[in-house]
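I am still getting used to backbone structure tokens and would like to learn alongside you. Label the sequence line and the structure token line clearly, so we can match residues to local backbone shapes. Go ahead whenever you are ready, and we will take it from there:
>
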Amino acid sequence: MLAHRKNVPIAFSCLRQFLAATALLLVTLTSALAAAVGMVTDLTGKVWLGEGATRQPLAILAYLEPSAVIEVEKGSSVSITFYSPSEEQVFAGPAKLKIEKQGITRISGAAPSVQRLGALAAEATSKEMNQGGRRTQAAVRMRSMAVGASIADLSPDKTGVRSTALRFSWAALPDVREYRLTLTTVEGIPIVEAAVNGAEWRLPAEKALTPGREYIWDIEATLADGSKIAGKGRFSVLDADAAARLAAESPKSGASFAQRVRYAIVLESAGLAEDARTLWRELAKERPEEPAVQKRAQQ
């Protein structure tokens, strides 16, 4: 018993040390995130963060802090998006770079190609940096706050949309006699009610929705035995001005990987979660070796 009592202060001391170390780590990580001034939006070949024995492979979507050193091997390249100034710089190797608060200092190598960012891309990437590592937690919380629907994979749901002529879809159930879909405004004003065969339905053209409004839709399945299973989705329609700005900065055919990464971030910032996820999934297919891109495709 005496030995046990002697061990209690030691245990509490160890716990205090562990908590202090954890708090210090969190403060360090938060400070580092706040200090980041740029992000890798594309790379090919071998690109390293750091120097000598401590250097590590650089990855797409990595945040870059002032004083960081980047080495780009011959035949490789890296695209870095900055927030002040709002521009992308693309470096071809061999090159050695140092990140500064207001851009990059070239230690060696050729001058980069430079592209200014559009207004939405500049705003969204700045927001991306401020949110940083909190995004994944927020996405998990959003999923956990789902309305408890038994019918899965509702679309659109918890997202903004650009079109007023929508396609609704959900996970098909076995032995369904009929689906019934009801669409209303968030205030409860009815828009349409329809019987549906199959697991998707398109809104009739004469029922086009109002930009800037939010809507709720319910889908109820009547099974062969007469029992019912339901699901509920919620979405908003982007206002016309916001939709026009998004269209103006939409990547053209043949756009670079980095441009499409930034546009996926723009879509997320605009609340178009499903459109963003679709683009991330396209990017993930192109770069299966990039874990951060794969992770974004699954959010």
